[in-house]
Amino acid sequence: MTARTPIRTRFAPSPTGYLHVGGARTALFSWAYARHFGGTFVLRIEDTDLERSTPEAVQAIIEGMEWLGLHHDEGPFYQMQRMDRYREVIAQMLAAGTAYYCYSSPEEVEAMRERQRAAGEKPRYDGTWRPEAGKTLPAIPADRKPVVRFRNPTEGDVSWIDVVKGSITISNRELDDLVIARPDGTPTYNFCVAVDDSDMKITHVIRGDDHVNNTPRQINILKALGAELPHYGHLPMILGADGAKLSKRHGAVSVMDYPAQGYLPEAMLNYLARLGWSHGDDEVFSMEQFTQWFDLDHLTKSPAQFDPEKLDWINNHYIKQADNTRLAGLIKPMMESLGAQFDNAPDLAAVIALMKERVKTLNELAVTAMLFYRQPVPDAALLTQHVTDATKPALAQYAELLKTVEWSKEALSAALKEVLAAHKLKMPQLAMPLRLIITGQLQTPSIDAVVELFGREVILARLANYL
Predict the structure, then answer these.
(1) What CA–CA distance (Å, rounded) separates 7 from 373?
(2) Closest Cα partner for 47 from 78, 6, 90?
(3) Which phi and psi angles does 167 have, rounded to 5°?
(4) Cβ–Cβ under 8 Å, residues 178 and 191
(5) Which of 4, 14, 44, 443 lies in the 20 to 30 Å Cα band around 397?
């Protein structure tokens, strides 16, 4: 689709919990659309729900955005810091007649809704306090603070072309007069969103489809304010592999669970980008490519399915591509918590280069790299099985050669083959006891690469223990 310029998008989470996967995808698409057009990405914290909003949740959202690298150009703006602006707009709307004071008590409103339900009607505010020409309003109750209601149009429809879902039309008869300020004067969600989107000149609102029902209310408020309407796009929800709405039982849902589980931010971004958007058959791409390609025309209308195995595959790809020194910095704290001993041990970046090809996560990489950073404790039964009268002479000869051989993988491999030929053994017959003695394990990368990394002094000392 063609875009108005300058493009201004926003991510506007409510800080009532962590930044979840669906929210991160919304943030990514909003960020990418702004980047694609050289526009502005705004971060807005919608914290008017005082009972549920917490500073910890705000921090979790900001940390999640920083980990993903979705840096905002403006903000974060906090709605609770904009109260004076909201009160100013409410006063203007009261003066213009697009809002009015309503003195109906919560009990009276619930009673009218019960009557409507009993009559088979849609429950809604019945307009008792809505000013109309020639209408006499009830007497104002003593000691009762009013709410402020938006004077919603009673005729016609609200229509918009949703950039994801297509044309949507809602009859104004389906919408009642929304409360836009509570008795204590604090404004309500839909009103604040409309004022913010107008003041911040937001051109494109990309959000989850759980907001579709809010959109006609916000459009009517924006029209009452004389504001230009943004384009709206409502993304389908993300489902778990079982087809149910993504939830905690599907594993990590908070974005900050993923670094803790050993995922790289670039893998997470790449994976999220493909949840509801596509560029041909491209599966792996950089964020530079993504922002060049991203548009709203290729957002899918159907729910996306979160596939942990696909995320693992993408994470493995990015681990293989990543700089080894960077990976070392990421996994070293994990390894220290596992008891790793780094003194007189192989270079961690070199170990990572050897070990990273097949691991799915950084946590898995940390565990496998421990092979080089702890004292081996071979199983006694396995030692009896593999370090035998048939293999000991070959191990002794290999140890003798290691005292003088050039310390390179190629030379170490040649020495190993020389010993195998001299003792008429096959590779597993010598590699297995070597692995056990050196690492305490039967499965490692190629034995010559392992021997090279440990170094001459360590290898000879460990072989001497068993010969």
Answers:
(1) 52
(2) 78
(3) -70, 130
(4) yes
(5) 443
